[in-house]
Batch of 2 targets.
Target 1
Amino acid sequence: MLENVNVLLFDFTRENLDEHEEAKVNLTSGKNVLEDLIQFEDGEFCESPFVQCIQIPTDDPYNQIPDEQMSDILGIEKNNLLYYRIFISSFKKSYSFTHGYLDEGAKDIKILANKKMIEENFPIFEIRYKVGEKWSSWQAIAGKFIVAHDYRFGPGGVREVYSSITEREISIIKQNFQIRYSGNTVNEILEPNTLYRIINDPFDSVIRKIIDPSTFQILFDSQLIQEVSSEKSFVIWRKFEERYR
């Protein structure tokens, strides 16, 4: 029997933003825009230019949707499909040492994105997710991406297997998930192993950030220390801390 699996499809590509200049103003304000983007009216999802609730047909009893199908929705090659992970910073004490490590959070949702999203999109957004009472760090995301619900009738965490996302689950996501505009990546030819830099922070243009290539975490650009006085770099760092702690 053919069934539909509902997922959320976000489109933050530069082309889509440029097509909706009026709505783009709020989207790039730097505040959390998820509440504005996702609305329901009489139980029906209100589509916006930047997020849609789409139905993906499947006749598999476990709601399996092949990666090829998800890649097609995002308009990318299958080998560029990324199961995007959100990380929670944690600390463990061992004897006289405290060890920091990253634990994967957001295990009830799946985010599928393009591995090349940062290099192909100059508008950069950032997301974070709350697990229990703890928020993850802000992490970079860009372009088109899918937010789906993990399979609820089994152990979960299985690739290509999903549950349909409902209005109730979307309301929970809105409480635990935040999205805001971060800025633009520097438009220049980058050498191999060069970190991507984000400029034009919407709250303060002096803040400059880099993206951790392995976790997509937003980090302070310490290169500023070499470019400005120590007093000024400390002021900029404090502004970064206030926004990202």
Note: The mean pLDDT is 85.
Target 2
Amino acid sequence: MAPSTRDDGRKKPWGWPLAGLVAMALGAGIMPVDQLWWYLPAAALGEVFLLWTAWRESTAKRSSDPAALQARLGRALALLAQHRTDVALAELDDLLPDLNRVLGPDHPVTLSARTFELRIRGDRGDLPDRVAAMAELVADRQRVLGPDHEETLTARYQLADWLEESGDIAQARSAYEALIVDTTRVLGADHSATLISRSSLAILRFQAGERDGLAELAGIADDMERALGPADSTTVSTRNLLTRLADPAGPGAG
């Protein structure tokens, strides 16, 4: 499968969210793994964290100590946030067998490592059917963590996004619609994840030829400005995208 090439400028609610201080907190065990997706990178501290992880691994049994395993995941995420994707993927490939053996396939740390590996390989085009692989992960998260868990919602957004990229617009639309209902109920209407999921659906509708999708996106941008603030990166990126969609021949087009 070819790697993802879509770059329509939309803001994603869940990107590569950890580095530096956040990854260090994960490795130290003071940040729950189910909070991984809700923090932005502190990339300047990434190298410090990598050195700290190397020391921690040297003081514990690399392949069997749960704390060392979690530190190794933190290291992979710090590398990922530094855009050292190949090295991060190698770390995850090396880590996952140990996580499955020591913690088990249903442990939250194992599921998180599996998620990051899947997202890297899916974005790189390394998987023959990344949609099926993500759907399997969603099912596992629902079974283990529950349908309302934030990491389950995270995986569902990625599934909807990949369905859209694959050209399955009807399934993507249904996935976004169901996700919006659940993020609104669980996280609230003004949560950034809900607002961004709504914007993704509006963009999908507009690009599928439903011209009122643009007006819907404008209303969502207003909601973002009210809930998140005019200077928030989500608000700014959505406003910029709205301008691009409304005037595709304008400045910066192409």
Note: The longest helix spans residues 85-102.
